[in-house]
Design a protein that fits this description.
mainly beta; Immunoglobulin-like; 4 domains; seven-stranded antiparallel sheet; 2 helices; 36 strands; about 5% helix; about 50% strand; elongated
Length: about 425
């Protein structure tokens, strides 16, 4: 370690010190008067940390990225457990990773948890740029990371999501209810329309519908059904006087719905886990309808693809031309395997041979394929509120038929003749 001039000449006055230093500097000698200067030993200067973002890694995997105002990812912890060390790396203006040098002992991490009843964060002994999270209660909160430098913060992160879950708790963010290949209803599936229900379930008065698959949406937007115990399917019916729900004996994540009284209610679907719900969906509309009742005003229809007529129904007979008299071609509707067609529009056919939209408030459509999952239908997110607009989805190659049921105010008003469909492989 180098010494200052005063260490060598303790009786030297300040003026004398300056004069002596000037002389020594001209001769390449000592550096100055004052305390030790660690920079002269080749050690880095502990300056202000200038960071534009950060990375959080757990087991060498990046779990959170924060860069110039945008954050992705979140930190997970289990209830009453401590996480593996999570390492912090800062990003400079060129998005290069950095941390203050080891010699800069006046830099340290500090943490601020928005709800400290959910989790606590602790520094890791022996690694100033790592921390652990201990889950205190199930739930979600946020936290900030600060780089403390002396008496101030050089860097403060944006809020970072933190989720504490029970060991074995299943994470779900949405719901899809499907019958064969047709999606009947969803909750929180389209991220552009969060916390929104689409479609609805149907059941006949005094009868049971075909089984309905209940699938949940993972944080990765994949559909799944929990496997094995201790998970079971649950539901909550707003008006249980209208309908009964029971699990299909062949599949614990498939249900049968029995209609009792005509009317409309809602159902919330749940993943039950050891006496509590890991997930509960929003309300899904359910209509109990009277079979073979009602009047749509006309039993005739027209089916258009991108505005072009592809099928016409008059008096229960299909035609391929606009109000024509010729029978339809062998295959009216086509779709490729793994592909989705352009938009179809199902309309009422007027007496003067025009297509007329149904009133969305009164009518809805039900699609049924003759051959299982050869084909399916789905509404486009931009048209979920328009019940007569749909896409055809190709699943497996072959030929089948599609029937479209028109419902009006909870009653079946009309069922089309079988419409030929070909799925091209």
């Amino acid at each position: 370690m180098q010494r200052s001039v005063r260490d060598w000449f303790p009786g030297l006055t300040p003026v004398g010190c300056l004069m002596l230093v000037a002389a020594l500097l001209l001769g390449g000698g000592l550096t100055g008067c004052g305390d030790d200067n660690p920079a002269d030993d080749g050690e880095p200067a502990c300056e202000h940390l200038d960071a534009d973002g950060l990375l959080l890694r757990e087991s060498d995997e990046v779990i959170v990225t924060q860069w110039q105002g945008a954050t992705s990812g979140e930190v997970h912890a289990h209830h009453e457990e401590t996480s593996e060390p999570i390492r912090v790396r800062f990003l400079d203006a060129d998005s290069l990773e950095t941390v203050p040098a080891a010699a800069c002992v006046d830099h340290a991490l500090r943490f601020e948890v928005a709800d400290p009843t959910i989790a606590e964060i602790s520094a890791v002994d022996g690694d100033r740029w790592a921390f652990t999270v201990r889950g205190l209660a199930d739930g979600k909160t946020t936290f900030r990371i600060r780089v403390w430098h002396g008496d101030h913060a050089d860097f403060t992160s944006l809020p970072i999501d933190l989720h504490v879950v029970d060991e074995g708790e299943i994470e779900a963010e949405g719901l899809v209810l499907a019958q064969k290949c047709t999606w009947l209803a969803t909750w929180n599936y389209d991220l552009a329309h969060p916390e929104v229900a689409t479609g609805r379930l149907l059941a006949p008065v005094g009868g049971v519908n075909d089984s309905i698959d209940v699938r949940f949406v993972s944080p990765d937007r994949l559909l799944f059904a929990p496997e094995g115990e201790p998970y079971t399917l649950g539901w909550e019916i707003t008006d249980p006087s209208l309908v009964e729900v029971e699990v299909d004996p062949l599949d614990p994540w498939r249900v049968l719905i029995r209609g009792k009284v005509a009317g409309t209610t809602t159902v919330r679907w749940k993943i039950l886990h050891e006496g509590h719900s890991d997930y509960t969906s929003g309300p899904i509309p359910l209509t109990v309808h009277v079979p073979n009742a009602g009047d749509a005003g006309s039993a005739d229809f027209v089916l258009k693809l991108n505005g072009v007529w592809v099928a016409t129904g008059r008096d229960g007979v299909l035609f391929s031309e606009t109000c024509g008299s010729r029978p339809p071609a062998v295959n009216l509707l086509t779709a490729a395997v793994g592909d989705t067609t352009d938009l179809f529009n199902f309309q009422r056919l007027t007496e003067d041979c025009r297509g007329e939209d149904y009133d969305d408030a009164e009518y809805s459509l039900l699609f049924e394929f003759e051959n299982g999952c050869m084909g399916g239908t789905v509404n486009h997110p931009e048209h979920w509120g328009e019940i007569t607009l749909f896409h055809l989805v190709g699943v497996t190659a072959g030929r089948t038929h599609l029937r479209i049921t028109v419902l009006r105010n909870d009653a079946i008003a009309y069922v089309t003749p079988p419409i030929p469909v070909e799925i091209i492989g």
